[in-house]
Amino acid sequence: MLSGALLFGALAFAAAAIVSLLLTPAIRNFALRRHFVDVAGSVRKIHTHSIPRLGGVAIFLAWLLAAGTMLLMEPSLRDVFWSKRPRTVVFVLGGLAAAALGCIDDVRGLRARYKLLAQFGIGLALCWAGFTVHEVQFPGGIVLGLGPFAVPCTVLWIAGVMNAMNLIDGLDGLAAGIATIALSTVFVFAVLAGNPLLAIFSAALAGAVIGFLFFNFHPASIFMGDAGSLLLGYFLSVALLRSSLRPASSNAMELLVPVLVLGVPLCDLAMAVCRRVLHGRGVFSPDREHLHHRLLAK
After folding, report:
1. How far apart are CA 202 and CA 191, in angstroms?
2. CA proximity to 60, closest of 109, 104, 19, 117
3. Parallel, antiparallel, or unpaired for β 142-145 and 135-138?
4. 196-216 and 225-243 helices cross at what angle (nearest 10)?
5. Running along the chain, 298 residues long, what does each successive block of 10 average in pLDDT?
6. Which positions ≥6 away from 28 have C-beta within 8 Å?
7. How far apart are CA 101 and CA 7, in angstroms?
8. 8/250 Cα distance (integer angstroms)
9. Is the separation of the CB atoms in 261 and 268 below 8 Å?
């Protein structure tokens, strides 16, 4: 099982990277022709001219094609996928919903409250499918039962990570770089835990992000947009939730694992919320005080 997960993970990574390399320039040219661009001038923007977005569409398509191909190639993986439905089906559909939500925002623009409601809806669908965390284990072996707060906490975790990845996407290659490191960690966890599906999915998404990164390094010629950041946040929120479950229970999550892997975006999100509340501003109001902005100012 270990060697099989490594082999198919490598194949999924390579296939997704190649597809992403081919798709990203095509998506970039399409965005330029349709004027789906991220314009300069906003308080939180650092680029000086308009940059096409929708790079997340290339990431999503590359991930879906590569992971789907692996399932078609290997009957045992396909059997595992169908044997664990509806959880697996809802997980893939949730990724589609996250990418579609971001794509709509990139193209037409959505108010923050509506995006948050949609994220809550995605989280509730995942809870229905069986992703709810009922216990949280803190360092030192302390276990906290969530009781009636299990569903709200799981939904808040998913929406929180989605927004954390969205907020950290403020410099060329930053969100994609953080996501690549996190996805590599998820892949290792999945292989060691004997979870071939999660290994394939995380390897494919990492390959898709790497292919996109070739065009997103400074100076970036395309941004991933909300389609990419929300997809990555969605995937990491669920993947780290599953990969950090204690072996003795399928419902208890070790809090230290996801916090360490996503420490930077989660810290930036917490600081942004506290800063805006203390200053009497809206939680979703943009500013230029994120961690990456402060580092640039230094």
Report:
1. 10
2. 19
3. antiparallel
4. 150
5. 76 96 96 84 58 93 96 90 92 97 92 94 95 80 83 94 88 88 91 89 97 90 93 94 59 65 75 74 67 66
6. 52, 54, 55, 215, 221, 222
7. 33
8. 25
9. no
Q: What is the DSSP string of the chain?
A: -HHHHHHHHHHHHHHHHHHHHHHHHHHHHHHHHHT-EE-TTSTT---SS-EE--HHHHHHHHHHHHHHHHHHH-HHHHHHHHHTTTHHHHHHHHHHHHHHHHHHHHHT---HHHHHHHHHHHHHHHIIIII---EEEETTTEEEE-GGGHHHHHHHHHHHHHHHHHHH--STTHHHHHHHHHHHHHHHHHHHTT-HHHHHHHHHHHHHHHHHHHHHSSSPS---HHHHHHHHHHHHHHHHHHHTB-TT-SSEEETHHHHHHTHHHHHHHHHHHHHHHHTT--TT---S-SHHHHHHH-
Interatomic CA distance for residues 122 and 111, integer angstroms = 17
> Across the strands, what pairs with 252?
135
Separation of alpha carbons 201 and 95, rounded Å: 11
